[in-house]
Design goal:
single chain; mainly beta; Beta-galactosidase, Chain A, domain 5; nine-stranded antiparallel β-sheet; 25 strands
């Protein structure tokens, strides 16, 4: 476990999965603490897929591979590269084990940088091979509802940097989406989306794609800001365990998403896939800002 600290925030990250595991401001914890009764993770990094591939199988050049939801990086031990009081970096490299599941060499580095009330989460994917590689990467941080009371229905609000014309898609079956049917995401209370204990019971995940938003804010029941995420990811997922009255919500910037239901094409042609030429590097940052 590595601890980052400044005058405002204390952050903890563990080498297993390079997973963010705590964000505290004073005595207040903002990040979900992985109670397995609801969901046993804090903030896993999703790589080399986001979500599910159809029937847990995918194909590259006619060869079939099996891969579980969200890939394997979240369940592997990363190597500590460097760190100080406000920054830390970890690395995961392809191996014989990963090549059996995913036929591309890679170097994945994940870094965390603390500045004031902001935490920058930095991803770098490098292609060390002599062929193109294909991948997806995404975040899955879970945050406590600020005013959670299991006996009441209200869970606060969400707002976005855009409040009109938003559309979402939904899971259809086996963790995969119906990408053709789009549902309007209404903001009925002055640009705020109300959250209740039933919000996710029937829809599982709210998915916004096509870079519709670049910022999401979680608000308290009185409308005041609790925390925000800023990003340039083309897809965003919003999730809380359905029908569990869970105390947290996940706000998830993704460079990729699950398969369309029934997809059996080549992995390289799936929706929202990223390609790196030999020697190239993909870099991205998203920001968690505590109010």
């Amino acid at each position: 476990m590595h601890t980052l600290k400044n005058d405002i925030l204390t952050v903890q990250v563990k080498e297993h999965g390079a997973e963010l595991s705590s964000i505290r401001k004073g005595s207040t914890e903002y990040l979900w603490q992985a109670d397995p009764a609801f969901w046993g993770r804090h903030s896993p990094v999703l790589f080399p897929i986001v979500g599910s591939v159809w029937d847990k199988r995918y194909r590259v050049d006619g060869q079939e591979y099996e891969l579980g939801q969200h890939g394997f990086a979240r369940d592997m031990d990363f190597t500590f590269v460097e760190g100080n009081e406000t920054e830390v970096r970890y690395r995961l490299e392809s191996s014989e084990e990963t090549l059996k599941k995913y036929p591309y060499p890679f170097v994945l580095e994940i870094a965390y940088k603390l500045e004031g009330n902001k935490l920058y989460v930095i991803w770098d994917v490098h292609n060390p091979s002599e062929q193109n590689i294909y991948f997806q990467i995404g975040a899955h941080p879970a945050f406590f509802y600020p005013d959670y009371d299991p006996q009441t229905a209200e869970r606060g609000f969400l707002s976005f940097d855009r409040s009109e014309g938003l559309e979402c898609i939904r899971i259809k079956e086996k963790g995969c989406v119906d990408a053709q049917t789009k549902y309007p995401l209404e903001m009925p209370q002055d640009g705020l989306l109300p959250l209740t204990r039933e919000t996710f019971d029937s829809i599982d995940t709210i998915m916004l794609q096509d870079a519709q938003i670049a910022r999401v804010t979680l608000h308290r029941n009185d409308g005041s800001s609790w925390l925000s995420l800023s990003f340039d990811a083309p897809v965003v997922g919003i999730w809380s365990p359905p029908a569990k009255n869970a105390p947290f919500i996940c706000l998830e910037p993704w460079y990729g998403r699950c398969d369309r239901a029934g997809y059996e094409g080549d992995y390289r042609e799936k929706d929202w896939i990223n390609c790196l030429a030999p020697g190239e590097r993909f870099s991205s940052v998203y920001t968690i800002e505590i109010a």
